[in-house]
Specification:
CATH topology of the largest domain: Alpha-D-Glucose-1,6-Bisphosphate, Chain A, domain 4
CATH class of the largest domain: Alpha Beta
CATH superfamily of the largest domain: START domain
Structural class: alpha+beta
Helix content: 10-25%
Largest sheet: 8 strands, antiparallel
Shape: elongated
Distance between the termini: 37 Å
Radius of gyration: 22 Å
Strand content: 35-45%
Strand order of the largest sheet: 1-2-8-7-6-5-4-3
Length: 326
């Protein structure tokens, strides 16, 4: 992971994050100063950022919001103070409302980003300065250390092409914390087709099957927000096993890039998971990222022990083959 250290200093009133990258300083600078690239990592997993304003000049302003898996928006604003590209920039970081007005009851901090060359690429040193120990304590209590670490650890995937980042690696499962798992898979096909394949029953029945020997016997889907779905699978031929299914509800839908649904095993009292699907396209390939939120660590480990990743890889390989035939 890129982040090597995050420290807080109550005497200096600072929080400092350090990260190392296999990319030159100029590439790192571009990632932090190009809004469409910044959006891909600034929010922690499950809270992607959208920048609606970005004026990179002294006195200029940036506005953004992060959208939670359940659709809540958290707004922020930057005021750029000093810029010396590609080495450093400084900005005031404030909480804001949806109109961009600064919230006076939450701390404003001064962020200093320094980009340094290293023998293998570059180093980021991000020092955030606070006005008081109370402000520092409040921001840390809100999860700033964990959130900033997870956000910056996503930057590796931005600094290289999607194909370089993921092609040939198959389905990958990463543990983010005790209740969150991130699953990634590069699919060779355009984003619109990948989105359709996740939301049209006639396409879902062709690929969402897991290991060979199963068929989807029920596929009922209303992809609109508040809509319900129900999937069931049954063994075919000599395959052994019992029929099973999942049901849930669409919580958020932003076609063709993001869909959040609940998932519950039909006919059981198992708690539901929250599944946050994100799609990114580049050069004709789509990176699929699925963040799954489990109710607790025990449930997370139980599900992973079923061989979930292998089953998903079989489905995604089938999806890729289906898209190639379109």
């Amino acid at each position: 992971m890129p982040v090597t250290d995050v420290t807080t200093d109550p005497e200096a009133l600072t929080m400092t994050l350090t990260a190392e990258f296999d990319a030159p300083v100029e590439r790192l600078w571009d990632a932090f100063t190009t809004p469409r690239q910044l959006e891909r990592f600034w929010g922690p997993p499950g809270y992607p950022a959208t920048f609606t304003e970005f004026d990179l000049a002294p006195g200029g302003r940036a506005r953004y919001h992060m959208t939670s898996p359940r659709g809540e928006e958290y707004h922020g604003a930057w005021e750029f103070l000093e810029i010396d590209g590609p080495r450093t920039f400084t900005a005031l970081d404030s909480f804001a409302n949806e109109d961009g007005e600064i919230l006076a009851d939450l701390p404003t901090s001064r962020m200093v980003f320094v980009f340094e060359p290293t023998s293998r690429g570059s180093r980021l040193v991000n020092t955030t300065h606070f006005d008081s120990a109370d402000a520092l304590e409040k921001i840390v209590a809100m999860g700033a250390v964990e959130g900033s670490t997870m956000a910056i650890n996503q930057l590796d995937r931005v600094l290289v092409s999607l194909r370089e980042y993921a092609e040939g690696k198959g389905t990958r499962t990463e543990l983010l914390d005790d209740t969150h798992v991130r699953i990634t898979r590069l699919v060779d096909g355009p984003i619109d087709l990948v989105w359709r394949a996740h939301h049209e029953p006639e396409l879902l029945k062709k690929w969402l099957l897991g290991p060979d020997g199963w068929r989807m016997s029920v596929c009922e889907l209303d992809p609109t927000v508040g809509g319900r779905y129900r999937y069931e699978w049954e063994p075919v031929g000599e395959t052994e096993g019992e029929s099973f299914g999942f049901d849930g509800e669409t919580i958020l839908s932003e076609a063709p890039r993001r869909a959040v649904t609940t998932e519950h095993m039909t006919g059981t009292d198992y708690p539901s998971t929250l599944n946050d699907l994100n799609l990114e396209e580049e050069d004709g390939a789509t990176l699929l990222t699925l963040i799954v939120e489990y109710p607790d660590k025990q449930t997370r480990d139980m599900v992973l022990a079923t061989g979930m990743t292998d089953g998903m890889e079989a489905s995604y390989a089938r999806l890729e083959g289906m898209l190639a035939a379109v």
